[in-house]
Design goal:
Helix 1 links the parallel strand 1 and strand 2. This protein has 2 domains: 179 residues, Rossmann fold (3-Layer(aba) Sandwich), CATH 3.40.50; 112 residues, UDP-galactose 4-epimerase, domain 1 (Alpha-Beta Complex). It is globular and about 55 Å long. It is built from 12 helices and 12 strands. 44% of the residues lie in helices and 16% in strands. 48% of the residues are buried. With 322 residues, it is α/β, with parallel strands linked by helices.
Length: 322
């Protein structure tokens, strides 16, 4: 990516978008990174150190007007309805997720804009290998969120083949972050457990103790998004999502690490509808293609992540922000 890039981040107030926006501003300049949001109002540094606009990603005319006004040449399209929320309103999830990416790709086609769009482990279903899930395998998701991600991958591939749009994508595992509250995803227990420990040393988990899923700490998530966009176009060998594994662990493994750092911590396991979703997703993914093509590597392991989560959340609590 050029050092003088002009960047828009849709979903700029969300879990990934808020932290990605701040990191992009550090690298490319505050005035060069526009955060776009809809329902959530930005606060703190996100609002104070760079431009913010309110817009609905389903409104293509509004998107295109902003892209023209801010002379945008790169879009990180993160706005989406997540898995748990999507199951409660599948039609809304389809409308927002699919029409959003179509709008971005159509504008990119017309204006020669570079696009990053995150896919997810939700594209996989019960029919694929759960351990070390290969890059290329059958995609038969069990949620509307997963269906929209498969549709989005195919649209990205189509717009690249048909129109030459430089769109790049990764399949994220669960993302863990201390900066934003859980947002309705199936993997959000891996965030909420830390909040529970810091607030009242108790957490009720909505998946079984033996549930294993791949997870990723936010710094690795952000690095992946930026690094794939910096890679030479000739090194990108798929316009579908690249598998990114992160670190795999069970809910019980995570609870033990939390208890070691928070004596007296209590956890209960009360699986709900999200358990079936989690059971359909991989335990781990083969991300060797991402490593080979653009140098992807994990830097944050489970213990390091847990230490950092506690440090950040305890500071937020001491400051009266938790």
């Amino acid at each position: 990516m050029r050092m003088d890039a002009r960047i828009m981040v849709t979903g700029g107030t969300g879990q990934i978008g808020s932290e990605l926006t701040l990191e992009l501003r550090k690298r490319y300049g505050n005035e060069n990174v526009l955060a776009l949001g809809h329902s959530r109002k930005p606060t703190g540094d996100l609002l104070e150190n760079g431009p913010f606009e309110k817009a609905d990603i389903r409104d293509r005319e509004r998107l295109e007007t902003l892209i023209e006004e801010y002379e945008i040449d790169t879009v990180y399209h993160l706005a989406a309805v997540l898995s748990g929320v999507g199951e409660k309103d599948p039609q809304f999830a389809w409308n927002l997720n699919v029409n959003g990416i179509i709008n971005v790709l159509e504008i990119a086609r017309k204006r020669n804009i570079k696009v990053f769009w995150p896919s997810s482990i939700a594209v996989f279903g019960n029919n694929c290998p759960q351990d070390n899930t290969p890059q290329d395998t059958a995609l038969q998701p069990t949620t509307m969120y997963g269906v929209t991600k498969v549709a989005g991958e195919l649209l990205c591939d189509y717009y690249h083949r048909k129109y030459g749009v430089d769109v790049r994508s990764v399949r994220y595992p669960g993302i863990v972050s201390a900066e934003t509250m859980p947002g309705g995803g199936t993997t959000d227990y891996a965030i909420a457990i830390f909040y529970g420990a810091v607030r009242n040393n108790h957490y009720t988990c909505f998946v079984r103790e033996d549930t294993v899923l791949p997870m990723m700490y936010m710094p690795d998530c952000i690095n992946a998004a930026i690094d794939i966009m910096k890679a030479p176009a000739e090194s990108i060998n798929t316009r579908l999502g690249y598998n990114l594994n992160g670190t795999s662990f069970s809910a019980g493994d995570l609870a033990k690490l939390v208890a070691e750092r928070s004596p007296g911590f209590r956890i209960e396991y009360k699986p709900d509808y999200r358990q079936a979703i989690a059971d359909s997703w991989p335990n781990s993914m083969d991300d060797s293609l991402a490593s080979k093509d653009w140098g992807w590597k994990v830097e944050w392991g489970l213990d390091r992540m847990a230490d950092d989560m506690f440090a950040r959340l305890r500071k937020r609590k001491a400051d009266g922000h938790l």
